[in-house]
């Protein structure tokens, strides 16, 4: 009979243990000591694991499987754009956005110095982030930069309701709410922290072709309106605000603007002695500039004017060729577009510009727009609001209160201004505009702090006019065509 190998002996012993009810080995089958020890260990292990261990292991495995499934439900990478606003006074901004737009705050981290280091805000389903400005790391607010080139577009169910809510909270209307050719009803609102919000409600779902058709129709209507406007005299429109340039040798200046800017002379009246120009008018684009020679009653008052053009570089070169000197060569400013500055031979400043499409900067400017350089422009704006019912439509202001650029609407005309600085110093100007009732506006201006130059009087050329001087030295001539008072 063949002798069993150690492995076969162990198999036999384990087989005995696997018999029902068998817990120990019979002595006669004990075999070798090594096989007996291995069989004993097998007998102890056959009852493992215990039932409670199996239950705990199953629960742990099921929990891990659930967690792994949940983790895979979130994409590993997400692509999205979230506006991140730098503001001067983030705590106040958060409260403003809550009142103006019904925003909710989701997260806020404060810095030890009291500044908001990071905050997350939601307006409906839209989310954005903001923090206080940190100039030390280049994170600057619009006030520090002199304005922002970014508008924030906000879609809402009812733009009229939210627009009124925003104004009540402190926003300023830049463009009133109106129906747009592309199927939306929208308006532009400037918040107190330097950002402009384009609030919009979708009214129609239009095809691209229909939007292009409406845009072409609108452009044609505007072109016709410009033609009609150019044919109408300012007295008929009762709305134009015009710069009035008082200088020596006005005849030479007229030749300059014709050569440099393509101006068209539309009226000239000489003084009784025929040696000087008592009054003249030129048209550049669709804007009118009035000019007259200085005399004993009217001291020289050159002025500053913005000139809207299609090609800044070309007009800048033509101005130099016509005799102007350069104040600033053509460049691309941080607020967009392109600009340059000239000083003409009579001392007037010309700020030549082409604005960025869709920008609020220079919105409403005509071909020629008066531009003022007062000291403390904010005070002048307040005067214009009290005296003439002006509306401030744009302001870019630095943290120290310096107004770099502001826009003010009087009637249907806009004037620009910025605090005197550098080469752009205060230039008291003369401005002429038409009102419905010159007497009431004259009295209102005096109550606002103006000084009288001349009380209202009827003039032989068909106007009733008056003049006042503001605290900054600017002369304001207001007029009403005789027979047009309502």
Name a few traits of the molecule.
8-stranded mixed beta sheet, 2,3-Dihydroxybiphenyl 1,2-Dioxygenase, domain 1, 24 strands, 486 residues, single chain, 30% helix, alpha+beta, 3 domains
Summarize the structure.
By secondary structure, this protein is α+β, with helices and mostly antiparallel strands.
Oligomer: single chain
Which strand order spans the largest sheet, edge to edge or round the barrel? 10-11-12-9-21-24-23-22
Estimate the helix proportion, in percent: 25-40%
CATH fold type of the largest domain: 2,3-Dihydroxybiphenyl 1,2-Dioxygenase, domain 1
- The CATH homologous superfamily of the largest domain is named 2,3-Dihydroxybiphenyl 1,2-Dioxygenase, domain 1
Number of strands: 24
Number of helices: 12
Summarize the biggest pleated sheet. 8 strands, mixed
User: Which regions have little confidence, pLDDT < 50, spanning 5+ residues?
Assistant: 229-239
The fraction of residues in strands falls at 25-35%
| Number of self-contained structural domains | 3
Termini Cα gap: 139 Å
User: What structural class is derived from the secondary structure elements?
Assistant: alpha+beta
Radius of gyration: 40 Å
CATH class of the largest domain: Alpha Beta
Shape: elongated
């Amino acid at each position: 009979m063949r002798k069993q190998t150690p492995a076969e002996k162990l198999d036999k012993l384990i087989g005995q243990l696997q018999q029902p009810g068998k817990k120990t080995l019979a002595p006669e089958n004990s075999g070798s000591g090594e096989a007996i020890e291995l069989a004993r260990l097998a007998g102890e292990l056959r009852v493992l694991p215990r039932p409670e261990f199996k239950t705990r292991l199953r629960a742990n495995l099921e929990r891990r499987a659930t967690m792994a499934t949940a983790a895979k439900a979130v994409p590993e990478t997400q692509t999205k754009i979230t506006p991140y606003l730098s503001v001067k006074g983030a705590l106040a901004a958060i409260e403003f956005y809550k009142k103006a737009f019904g925003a909710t705050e989701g997260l806020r981290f404060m810095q030890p110095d009291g500044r908001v280091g990071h905050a997350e805000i939601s307006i409906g389903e839209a989310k954005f982030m903001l923090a206080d400005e940190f100039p030390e790391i280049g994170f600057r607010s619009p006030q520090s930069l002199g304005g922002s080139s970014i508008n924030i577009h906000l879609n809402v169910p009812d733009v009229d309701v939210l627009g009124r809510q925003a104004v009540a909270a402190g926003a300023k209307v830049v463009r009133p709410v109106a129906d747009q050719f592309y199927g939306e009803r929208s308006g532009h609102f400037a918040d107190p922290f330097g950002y402009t919000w384009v609030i919009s409600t979708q009214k129609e779902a239009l095809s691209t072709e229909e939007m292009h058709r409406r845009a072409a129709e609108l452009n044609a209507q505007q072109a016709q309106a410009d033609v009609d406007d150019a044919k109408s005299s300012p007295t008929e429109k009762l709305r134009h605000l015009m710069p009035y340039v008082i200088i020596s040798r006005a005849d030479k200046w007229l030749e300059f603007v014709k050569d440099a800017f393509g101006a068209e002379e539309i009226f000239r009246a000489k003084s009784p002695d025929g040696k000087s120009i008592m009054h003249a008018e030129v048209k550049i684009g669709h804007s009118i500039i009035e000019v007259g020679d200085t005399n004993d009653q009217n001291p020289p008052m050159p002025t500053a004017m913005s000139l809207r053009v299609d090609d800044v570089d070309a007009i800048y070169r033509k101005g130099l060729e016509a005799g102007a000197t350069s104040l600033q060569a053509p460049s691309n400013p941080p607020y967009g577009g392109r600009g340059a500055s000239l000083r003409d031979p009579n001392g007037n400043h010309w700020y030549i510009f082409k604005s960025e499409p869709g920008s609020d900067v220079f919105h409403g400017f005509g071909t020629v727009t008066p531009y003022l350089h007062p000291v403390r422009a904010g005070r002048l704006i307040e005067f214009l609001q009290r005296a003439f019912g002006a509306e401030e439509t744009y302001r870019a202001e630095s943290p120290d209160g310096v107004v770099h650029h502001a826009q003010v609407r009087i009637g249907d005309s806009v004037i620009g201004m910025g605090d005197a600085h550098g080469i752009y110093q205060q230039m008291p100007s003369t401005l002429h505009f038409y009102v419905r009732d010159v007497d009431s506006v004259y009295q209102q201006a005096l109550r606002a702090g103006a000084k009288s130059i001349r009380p209202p009087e009827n003039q032989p050329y068909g106007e009733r006019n008056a003049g006042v001087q503001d605290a900054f030295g600017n002369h304001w001539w207001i007029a009403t065509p005789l027979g047009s008072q309502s």
